[in-house]
């Protein structure tokens, strides 16, 4: 039987190392970068990726700009996905924690929406709640898959 190896570029290993040393678990890092857990642990041991050797940042100076682009809806979606992942993995306690967070974030989202729409007229409120938010495509591939807006005038094919 031929054994297949997953070769990852050095940039992937560097990102995995940085995430691990920043506090993510080895399992989380391996899932995020599609790495084998045994390979990750071997490399961490070989190259000395130890959290205890890291200099902790001074209190109150944690760099939270990493999370500036994560909105509440993304947090809710992530918590829901983590709940399902833990549930399917047989991790009942972890699943329960993710479920609790998922519910709390969903309730917070509802409260924020109610505060936001409090001053609106009933018609404005319905329009706000029914209209989906405009989503920008993240990649060129996604942009090509979006339907083209209707063109004004005759189409080039009819000329």
What topology does this entry show?
Elements: H1 10-21, H2 26-33, H3 37-47, H4 72-88, H5 92-117, H6 122-130, H7 140-145
Helix pairs in contact: 1-2, 4-5
Region (Disordered): 131-159
Structural class: mainly alpha
What's the helical proportion of residues?
55-70%
What is the CA-atom radius of gyration, in angstroms? 23 Å
**Distance linking N and C termini:** 61 Å
Oligomer: single chain
Looking at the structure, what is the overall shape? elongated
Number of strands: 0
Count of helix runs? 7
- Secondary-structure element string: HHHHHHH
The portion of residues forming beta strands comes to: under 5%
Low-confidence stretches: none
Overall pLDDT: 79
Largest sheet: none
Write a compact overview of the structure shown:
With 159 residues, the protein is mainly alpha-helical.
Describe it:
There is one protein chain. This protein is an all-alpha fold and 159 residues long. Among the domains are: 8-53; 69-131, no CATH class. 56% of the residues lie in helices and 0% in strands. The chain has 7 helices and no strands. The protein has helices at residues 10-21, 26-33, 37-47, 72-88, 92-117, 122-130, 140-145. Helix 1 runs antiparallel to helix 2 (26-33) and helix 4 runs antiparallel to helix 5. The radius of gyration is 23 Å and the shape is elongated. The mean pLDDT is 79.
């Amino acid at each position: 039987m031929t054994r297949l190896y997953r070769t990852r570029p050095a940039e992937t290993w560097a990102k995995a190392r940085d995430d691990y040393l920043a506090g993510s678990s080895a399992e989380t890092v391996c899932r995020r970068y599609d790495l084998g857990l045994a390979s990750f642990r071997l490399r961490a041991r070989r190259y000395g990726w130890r959290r205890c050797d890291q200099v902790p940042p001074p209190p109150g100076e944690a760099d939270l700009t990493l999370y500036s682009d994560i909105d509440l809806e993304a947090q809710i979606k992530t918590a829901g996905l983590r709940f399902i992942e833990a549930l399917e993995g047989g991790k009942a306690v972890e699943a329960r924690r993710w479920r609790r967070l998922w519910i709390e974030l969903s309730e917070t989202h509802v409260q924020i929406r109610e505060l936001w729409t409090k001053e609106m007229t009933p018609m404005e409120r319905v329009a706000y709640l029914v209209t989906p938010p405009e989503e920008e495509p993240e990649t060129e591939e996604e942009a090509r898959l979006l339907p083209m807006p209707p063109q004004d005038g005759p189409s080039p094919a009819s000329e």
